[in-house]
Design the sequence.
């Protein structure tokens, strides 16, 4: 008899990282999937897509956001109403394992604390690359304890004192007050008590690192995240560095193609975007000189990119007399297309590491000129020790700053994600 696996991922696009894993796990588990409506445009299309990829018993989408990815009084009520009805459809007490990428979002917290049995093993996963402020991560990497800094963080990404300095607009302050009122008083007090007779206020570190209660097991897929969470968890053995299943069968055959992974080009003016695209073209010129077999550039945008038309037009205008250019649909998982390319490049992002781990032969470059604007000179720490080539395209050479941190690299025994779950 198969065990029962509940898979809760808030960001639907992160769920797609696990498709090959779930395909392997379907032999051992009866799988139920829960995700939010984050960036989902058509529920039926996504359902049919997943159904073709692997077998699952149930797939549910929690109505969490409005179309603009904000929450309103209505969507908050809809979330609670949906969960109360879902509890009648799904026997949550029978699940043996629950995989979740957070208990921060209230729908995940309700399932974890109110629906699941005490016997269910709760496994936390961190799918994306390091979200932690890099100035803090550098201190942890050098041996300091994260507990010295956790109170100064806001959802890992920003140091609170810096964040407050930026909030000068009265209108923005008003919107933040309104948002906090809905998230706390309405969502976590009023409706939580109405539906579950319990106030589900944020716990001690929820707003700092989006996790207060430790999972039975924490699984991460990036070395930097492993360093952080291993530092945070008291029981070091409870944190595992893992990898996803890959279908790569690449040999040494050249494909003659390179892909640019666009992860939210910064700036809104055409001039700012055009300058970044010039940097992309400069790097492309370097690679085509090194490898004359390159005859096609593909461009894949981040799912949240809202300047696609502007970017595509600038690219098209600048490439009239150059190699072929191809715009790739961003809804298709990178793992499905990565083996078509010899090279991938872009600014610092999870996508770079995704393609590196999905293909045995691809070379992956991170361009310094596109990464330091947001993350500074230590941008590479976000993908530390991941076999990414950090390229200083200003000086046309490998970024020498990376070598300063070579002493902190360690070999870690990585385990395949599906094997970890099978062996629980």
Sequence:
């Amino acid at each position: 008899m198969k065990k029962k696996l509940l898979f809760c991922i808030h960001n639907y696009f992160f769920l797609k990282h696990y498709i090959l894993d779930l395909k392997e796990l379907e032999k051992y588990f009866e799988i139920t999937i829960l995700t939010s409506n984050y960036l989902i445009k058509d529920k039926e299309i996504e359902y049919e897509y997943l159904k073709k990829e692997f077998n699952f018993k149930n797939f549910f989408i929690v109505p969490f956001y409005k179309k603009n990815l904000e929450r309103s009084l209505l969507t908050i009520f809809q979330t609670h109403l949906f969960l109360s009805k879902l509890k009648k459809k799904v026997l949550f007490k029978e699940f043996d394992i629950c995989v979740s990428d957070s208990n921060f979002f209230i729908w995940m917290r309700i399932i974890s604390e109110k629906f699941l049995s005490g016997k269910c093993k709760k496994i936390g996963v961190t799918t994306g690359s390091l979200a932690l402020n890099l100035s803090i991560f550098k201190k942890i990497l050098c041996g300091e304890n994260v507990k010295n800094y956790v109170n100064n963080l806001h959802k890992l990404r920003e140091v609170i004192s810096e964040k407050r300095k930026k909030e000068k607009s009265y209108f923005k302050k008003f919107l933040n007050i309104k948002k906090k009122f809905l998230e706390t008083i309405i969502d976590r007090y009023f409706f939580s008590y109405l539906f579950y007779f319990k106030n589900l206020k944020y716990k001690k570190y929820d707003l700092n690192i989006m996790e207060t209660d430790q999972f039975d097991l924490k699984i991460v897929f990036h070395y930097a995240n492993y360093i952080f969470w291993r530092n945070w968890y008291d029981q070091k053995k409870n944190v595992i560095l893992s990898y996803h299943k890959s279908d790569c069968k690449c040999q040494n055959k050249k494909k003659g193609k390179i892909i640019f992974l666009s992860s939210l080009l910064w700036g809104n003016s055409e001039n700012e975007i055009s300058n970044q695209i010039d940097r992309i073209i400069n790097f492309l010129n370097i690679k085509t000189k090194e490898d004359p077999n390159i005859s096609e550039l593909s461009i894949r945008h981040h799912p949240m990119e809202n300047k696609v038309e502007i970017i595509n037009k600038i690219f098209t205008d600048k490439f009239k007399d150059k190699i072929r250019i191809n715009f790739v649909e961003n809804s298709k998982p990178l793992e499905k297309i990565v083996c078509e390319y010899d090279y991938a490049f872009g600014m610092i992002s999870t996508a770079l590491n995704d393609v590196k781990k999905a293909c045995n032969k691809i070379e992956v470059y991170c361009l310094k000129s596109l990464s330091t604007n947001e993350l500074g000179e230590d941008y590479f720490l976000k993908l530390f020790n991941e076999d990414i080539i950090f390229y200083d395209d200003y000086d046309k050479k490998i970024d020498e700053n990376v070598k300063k941190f070579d002493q902190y690299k360690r070999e870690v025994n990585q385990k395949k994600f599906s094997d970890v779950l099978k062996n629980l």
The mean pLDDT is 90. The radius of gyration is 22 Å. The chain is about 40% helix and 20% strand. The longest strand covers residues 29-36.
